[in-house]
């Protein structure tokens, strides 16, 4: 590139990493990854066979189709957590239930590996919450109480920032939130 060029001077790998980090930050990424990682051994082990010299060790069971269905559903739920994060609670509960069902159906939940990953992914999906939007100056948004909801005679107080764990409780008053008439 010449010094007069208006193009980016950053390496394309840095740009891709930054885009991936931004994409990953707006969805339950680790929940989806653990759920998909749990679905793979649950679906794979009933159809796998190992060769020990001339002897073949088959781990197949009569419930091979059930474990394949559970594994494919867990992989689908993991992708759903990534691309439709609005249904993350449903996907998390479904992943936990499928992980529990995989214990009797799919070789003890994919030899416990798939069970633990699917259970962890479901729990992470249920507990994930989208972040608060940030203003252009990098400050958290400020919640203001509309004048119509303010009782008569109360002065307009400064806006209190709504942050998790900030110690402010706007809903509770000294009388438990009830206002007495008269």
Automatic annotation (TrEMBL):
Transmembrane segments: 28-45, 57-79, 86-105
InterPro entries for this protein: DUF6114
Organism (species): Streptomyces griseus subsp. griseus (strain JCM 4626 / CBS 651.72 / NBRC 13350 / KCC S-0626 / ISP 5235)
Region (Disordered): 145-182
Keywords, sorted A to Z: Membrane, Transmembrane, Transmembrane helix
Protein name according to UniProt: Membrane protein
């Amino acid at each position: 590139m010449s010094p007069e060029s208006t193009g980016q001077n950053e390496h394309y790998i840095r740009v891709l990493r930054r885009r991936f980090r931004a994409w990953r930050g707006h969805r339950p990424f680790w929940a989806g990854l653990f759920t998909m990682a749990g679905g793979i051994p649950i679906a794979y082990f009933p159809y796998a066979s190992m060769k020990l010299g001339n002897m073949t060790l088959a781990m197949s069971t009569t419930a091979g189709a059930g474990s394949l269905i559970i594994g494919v559903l867990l992989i689908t739920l993991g992708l759903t957590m990534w691309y439709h994060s609005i249904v993350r609670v449903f996907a998390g509960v479904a992943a936990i239930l499928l992980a529990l069902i995989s214990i009797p159906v799919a070789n003890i939940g994919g030899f416990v590996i798939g069970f633990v990953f699917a259970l962890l992914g479901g729990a992470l999906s249920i507990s994930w919450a989208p972040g608060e939007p940030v203003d252009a100056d990098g400050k958290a948004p400020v919640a203001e109480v509309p004048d119509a909801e303010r009782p008569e005679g109360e002065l307009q107080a400064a806006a209190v920032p709504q942050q998790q764990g900030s110690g402010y409780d706007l809903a509770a008053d000294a009388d438990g939130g009830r206002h007495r008439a008269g």
